[in-house]
Amino acid sequence: MNLDDLRDHLCSVYPDLCPLFSVEFGDGVLTVGPDALFSAANDLKNLGFDRLLMLTAVDRGEHFEYHCRLLSRAMSAAITLKTEIPRDRPSVASLVPLWPAADWQEREVFDLFGIRFAGHPDLRRILLPDEWEGYPLRKDYADPRVIRRPDYI
Amino acid sequence: MALDVESRQVVETAEGEVFDQLVVNVGPSHPSTHGVCRVIVHLDGEIVTRAEPVIGYLHRGIEKMAENRTYLQVVPLTDRLDYVGSMYSNWAYCRTLERLADIPVPERAEYLRVIVCELQRIASHMMAIGANGADTGALTLFVYAFDQRERVVELFEALCGQRLTYNYVRPGGVSYDVPDGWIEDVRAFTTEHRSALAEMDKLFFGNTITRGRLKGVGVLSAADAVAWGASGPVARGSGVNWDLRKHDPYSVYPRFDFDIPTGTEGDCYDRARVRLYECYESCRIIEQALAQMHSGSYRTEGLPRLIAPPPGDAYDHIESARGALGIYLVSDGSPRPYRMKVRSPAFCNLALLPMLSEGHMLSDLVAILGSLDPVFGEVDR
Q: B69, B281 in Cβ contact below 8 A?
């Protein structure tokens, strides 16, 4: 299914999601507010996106950008769910009730970005030791043990 | 790290039955854990009541390291992700970068990428099947499978000088064209490999002990495979016919005629056997690719040393030996990635371990872990 068909299908079933849909670098993107994330994800699941492929975040300075890539085998289409999470209140709804695949991926985002997922059954660090301090993938993470590469370029 | 497990715990079941639970720590350095995986196993007698994987022992922070390197310097880092299938990580990274920076790839390079990646699939699956055999007591199979894997590794050594971390697929093409006689060697290998596969099929999959050890163990339903985001042979063993080479075709894969083997039961036996049959299909793809490949340039000339893609983000994925391997790149317009994320199929498949091993014997846990084929370079990153 190409992106125009996906947009038409999305708009016919969920007209309120329609203005949030955009195309970036050849990918369909649905940008929602952090509070509407769970309901939008639920709508997309009902639309036929049965598979959660990737869940991650990007530190954009003043906020975190949340990315969740969903896939539908029946429609052979992918869509990215994006939202902005405020840095001072890094919390968003967990998608584990919809896709258990989110379980470990949300733990990873919590581990490396410090974003909390409300409703996650077992939110704790996964890659780093439990006693680790700080969240390494944040851009302001500073660790005296890290050796900076000199700026060759 | 302190062991925060108590050796004995008294547990009351939902039916009010009280039993002594033994907590055993397996790993992180154990021959059957395929790397550095630690599993905290709760046992009722010999039955696993809970298995909790503890990962991160090989976490090197590759995603963070990538933010401090130029786009070309990241390619060798991707070798260290899935060290049993480095070609895949190279290719997935290069595909995303080529998409982001709009770099063209010559046709011959696409064919070479397909050929090396299918050879890599054979090497990786031989490792998985052989280790699965060794874990369940069939050490002979391990030797047979590693003999085949060695042939592939020698072909790679002749191609790019490396046996494990190839750094072969580069943005805009590949690093070397094929040496003299290499194509004939690959043709000879595929012919020989088919007969070796038939022999292994009889030796291992027809064996009564193997059937007893693997059949009906660690059953994954198709619905669970989809919900848990399983991909690759783990999903296909459960009958989920989903292969990115067919269902999200990339590169020159639409030009080849091949099948997607799927299982029916979703047990360890089907997962292992799907891997064996995929090797046959890889042979078919390699032979067609060798026949279709024309001479020409193997890389795009004139690429700058410092690639600075326009600001934006892109995701692309390929079908690795473990499943859907995706790389997500964010560019801020500078010559270094702003963020790189690896969608690791091994990580997502390993999340199934607690569910699959519950209710099985401790010795089955080893078979189940082997059938998920985790590579910890990619799980921990």
A: no
> Per-domain residue ranges for chain A?
3-118
Q: Which residues contact B100 (CB under 8 A, 6 or more apart)?
A: A25, B309, B310, B312, B313, B314, B329, B331
Interface with B, mutate which of A1, A31, A45, A51 (most B CBs under 10 A): A51
When scoring B77, B339, B342, B372 by the number of chain A Cβ atoms within 10 A, the one with the most, hence best to mutate, is B339
- Domains of chain B and CATH, by start: 62-380 (1.10.645.10)
CATH homologous superfamily for the domain A3-118: NADH:ubiquinone oxidoreductase Nqo5 subunit (3.30.460.80)
A54, B328: Cβ pair inside 8 Å? yes
pTM of the model: 0.88
DSSP conformation letters of B2-29: -----SEEEEE-TTS-EEEEEEEEE-SS
Q: What pLDDT digit, counting tens, does each position of A2-26 carry?
A: 777 777 777 777 777 777 777 777 7
Residues A31-45: tens digit of each pLDDT: 888 888 888 888 888
